[in-house]
Amino acid sequence: LNMDSFPYLANNPSPEATKQFLSYCGSAEGQVLFNAEKGSIPPRSDADVSSLNTFQQDQFEDFNAADNQPPSVQHGLAVSPGVSTNIGSAFSGFLEEYDAAATADALINAFN
């Protein structure tokens, strides 16, 4: 599970416009439009996803029917920072050597 975020900066030169933008981003309509372009699904359960493609509609239905969502390894939510670094190093090594066996070993060792 991954989420997009839109931060509100402390030294914001246009606070009212930013608040209006963030409010729209958080609306069901804004989330549908954003996710349609991104190819993902809106996290709001009240979003009308009928304009999204069939795959996105199926994913939206599955997401809302799930009891829980697993955290993401890629975004550092499911592993410690050290393990995440080791995983990144394993894939970097693959891009240098293209050695699948060595990469598999490095990925296994990333968790040790």
Number of strands: 0
What distance lies between the first and last C-alpha atoms, to the nearest angstrom?
24 Å
Can you tell me the residue ranges where pLDDT is under 50 for at least 5 consecutive residues?
Answer: none
Helix content: 55-70%
Q: What string, H for helix and E for strand, traces the elements in order?
A: HHHHH
Shape field: extended
- Count of DSSP helices? 5
> How many domains?
2
Mean pLDDT, as a whole number?
93
Structural commentary:
This protein is mostly helical and 112 residues long. It has two domains: 15-65, no CATH class; 81-110. The chain is 56% helix and 0% strand. The chain has helices at residues 15-26, 28-38, 54-65, 81-97, 100-110. Helix 4 (81-97) runs antiparallel to helix 5 (100-110). The longest helix has 17 residues, at 81-97.
Short descriptors:
5 helices, 2 domains, mainly alpha
Q: What topology does this entry show?
A:
Blueprint: H1 15-26, H2 28-38, H3 54-65, H4 81-97, H5 100-110
Helix pairs in contact: 4-5
Task: Give a summary of the structure in a few sentences.
By secondary structure, the protein is mostly helical. The protein folds into two domains: 15-65, no CATH class; 81-110. It is built from five helices and no strands.
